[in-house]
Design a protein that fits this description.
The protein has 662 residues and is an alpha/beta fold. It has helices spanning 40-47, 81-86, 90-108, 115-133, 140-149, 166-179, 196-208, 220-226, 245-280, 287-299, 366-373, 408-413, 424-430, 447-459, 477-489, 501-504, 526-539, 543-555, 562-618, 627-659; strands at 2-10, 15-24, 29-33, 55-59, 66-69, 184-188, 212-216, 229-234, 237-241, 328-337, 340-350, 355-360, 380-385, 391-394, 465-469, 493-497, 510-515, 518-523. Helices cover 47% and strands 17% of the residues. It is flat and about 90 Å long.
Length: 662
């Protein structure tokens, strides 16, 4: 689909990457990886034509469409959510107008045997098939499915986009790109503004609906679930691994070990040559050999080693005073914004040493409860902070509290104590502030860089309660590993608000789910929660019948009075009657949908049969230019496409209703 040949980009003395060559094929799911600053975002911009390389060629077929989601976009504020999403189909309107013009021209022309007429017929057929493949006129249902998959509610569709945060508006832009169904999707950190459920929906979409995908993401679970190929940008080179991310990590480790051995051998060879030159430089009898060694030294191409592996770096929070047994106690906590209730009746207790996660869709109150704990906003109910609690709090706005006149190094040097001061350079390198970056002033840092610096500062402060609100959004994978290991070794209490499953896995032992104005407690890790949540949804309908069985069992046994037995039978019948009525209603709906599906299938069979007849007729040159048959064939394709869409919708409805009977 796309061919890249000898691509080079130079911003300074050292090229960002050089002589990169690879091919993007259909069904490729590519993870583009490398340390921050390696050129991942630049590569995506070159592939979509927003930036030109210094040299090299990017060959893209003229009929190949590309969708690009950058990390930062200029967002529109003058429409509703639905109207903004409809812009994805602006090309459909233009395509429909072209098709209508070609159809009118075909109707008016009579030079049926001419080459130009046959070329017009071929172009009309191609464009019409493309229009039908893009969804034709039935795109409203597709808009709704995509927006809801990305976390929007139906009540959000008619709200102005300017009522939403930047993260939610980025979701709208992602929805528009997905709705356009481009041949190649280029996604730069698509999960930064998504919650866990939306990420899972996006995983499924990319796995089943997209043609080719290239993505940059620091969400390890996401890229491992989606990708089947890994392109690494390292030391100015692009290395192609035909495996998913987890397998790439193993292969990369082996490759780096080989690089180190080769580098050490080369350094020994260089040292030996230099020693020979120095020893015999001034001996006339060795002049020829010295010159040969000098030429040999000039021809050696230095072996570069990948960036320093910081996985062995271990950070440890400085010791803090012991806290009380119960750092956080919430009792009937409620928060309202005007008439909108965020949550109510929140009752929970977090014990000393527990590491818990707050999860749920965006806007359900995770960060709001954190702000209540920090006493940043008013609320009702009782919320008690335990004895001797020292809170370390990380949120995106913490980055704004840094002293802008200090350098990166000075910011950390001011809080580092004891032996850790000897490791400041290593720590900064682990969080992508290596080399000259450590001498930058805070005021010139980007928002992401400030967030990382605020995170390092927090890691070096003595606290016994850590509250982290989306701590991984601006961290690469190595930095996340360093942070995760530090938190695992932390002997205090931790609350993490995050959508990053890989980061939470093995870190937390309890999950609090926010949704529908309630907060539910789930024991176990994040994957235990995800698994139990699916089971929980299926079991809800069975809860009432299970409860009734328990009631009946409790009333049996021993010599019961007749009146008591009658009450038991009556109560049981009442509960079963309710369950029966509910099941009866569901079954009615299932029967109705099954009839609609049968009718739809019969109609599809009829349309396909006529289509086959027309195919055979139009293959005959004598009828190829019969506009009546061509028009009938066009209308038939439209009807068939609409009928197939309706059948798919009915099949999905049937599956949903059948699940309710489980």
């Amino acid at each position: 689909m796309i061919s890249i040949e000898n691509l080079s980009v130079e911003f300074g003395v050292k090229p960002l990457f050089k002589n990169a060559s690879f091919v993007i094929n259909e069904r490729d799911r590519i993870a583009l990886v490398g340390k921050n600053g390696a050129g991942k975002s630049t590569m995506l911009k070159i592939l979509c034509g927003k930036q030109q390389p210094t040299s090299g060629n990017v060959a893209i077929p003229t009929d190949t469409t590309i969708g690009y989601l950058p990390q930062v976009m200029i967002l529109q504020d003058d429409t509703t959510v639905r109207e903004e999403a409809r812009k994805a189909f602006a090309g459909n309107t233009e395509l429909k107008e072209r098709i209508d013009r070609m159809q009118e021209e075909l109707s008016n022309r009579t030079d049926y045997e001419s080459e130009s007429y046959m070329a017009l017929v071929e172009k009309f057929t191609h464009e019409h098939e493309r229009y039908m493949m893009l969804g034709a006129d039935g795109y409203e249902a597709e808009i709704e499915r995509t927006l809801m998959g990305l976390g929007f509610k139906r009540t959000d569709f008619e709200r102005p986009t300017n009522e939403f945060s930047g993260g939610w508006r980025m979701r709208i832009e992602l929805a528009k790109i997905l709705l356009q169904k481009p041949d190649v999707l280029l996604l730069d950190e698509p999960t930064n503004h998504l919650d866990i459920e939306s990420i899972q929906w996006l995983e499924q979409f990319l796995a089943t609906s997209a043609k080719a995908v290239i993505m940059v993401s620091h969400d390890r679970a996401f890229i491992n679930n989606v990708t089947n190929r890994t392109l690494e940008i390292s030391c100015g080179n692009v290395i192609d691994y035909k495996v998913k991310y987890n397998e790439y990590v193993v292969l990369r480790k082996e490759r780096r070990e080989q690089q180190i051995r080769a580098y050490e051998n080369q350094q020994k060879e260089i040292a030996d040559i230099k020693a020979f030159i120095e020893r015999f430089r001034y001996q006339a009898t060795k002049a020829v050999q010295v010159q040969q060694r000098i030429k040999q030294l000039e021809k050696i191409v230095p072996i570069e080693i990948d960036e320093v592996d910081t996985s062995a770096l271990r950070l440890k929070f400085p010791p803090a005073e012991r806290s009380g047994d119960y750092p956080i106690i919430c009792d009937e906590v409620r928060k309202d914004y005007g008439e909108h209730n965020v949550f109510s009746n929140v009752t929970l207790t977090i014990k000393r040493g527990e590491k818990v996660a707050f999860v749920g869709k965006n806007g359900e109150g995770k960060s709001t409860l954190v702000k209540c704990i920090m006493n940043e906003i008013p609320f009702t109910g009782n919320l008690k902070i335990g004895h001797n609690i020292q809170i370390g709090y990380f949120a995106q706005n913490q980055a704004q509290l840094l002293d802008e006149e200090l350098t990166v190094f000075q910011t950390i040097d001011n809080v580092a104590k004891g032996e850790i001061r000897l490791k400041i350079r290593d720590i900064l390198g682990a969080f992508m502030f290596g080399g000259e970056a450590s001498d930058k002033k805070v005021k010139v840092l980007s928002g992401g860089e400030r967030s990382r610096l605020a995170m390092i500062k927090l890691l070096l402060e003595p606290v016994n309660l850590l509250i982290l609100d989306e701590p991984t959004n601006h961290l690469d994978m190595q930095s996340k590993d360093v942070l995760k290991d530090a938190i695992k070794a932390f002997n205090g209490t931790v609350i993490v608000v995050s959508h990053d499953r890989e980061f939470l896995d093995g870190l937390v032992e309890k999950v609090y789910e926010f949704g529908g104005g309630k907060v539910k407690e789930h024991l176990g890790g994040i994957y235990d929660f995800l698994q139990s949540k699916k089971i929980e949804n299926l079991d809800e309908l069975q809860a009432s019948s299970a409860a009734s069985s328990a009631n009946v069992t409790n009333r049996q046994g021993g010599n019961q009075k007749t009146s008591s037995s009658k009450e038991t039978v009556t109560e049981k019948a009442s509960v079963n009657s309710l369950s029966y009525e509910a099941r009866k209603e569901i079954q009615k709906r299932i029967n109705k949908i099954e009839k609609q599906i049968a009718a739809s299938e019969a109609n599809i069979e009829k349309l396909e049969s006529r289509q086959a007849e027309l195919d055979e007729i139009l293959m005959d040159p004598a009828h190829a230019s019969d506009m009546k048959l061509v028009n009938e064939y066009t209308e038939l394709q439209e009807k068939l496409s609409a009928e197939m869409t309706q059948w798919e919708d009915l099949a999905m409805q049937l599956e949903e209703w059948k699940e309710k009977l489980l």
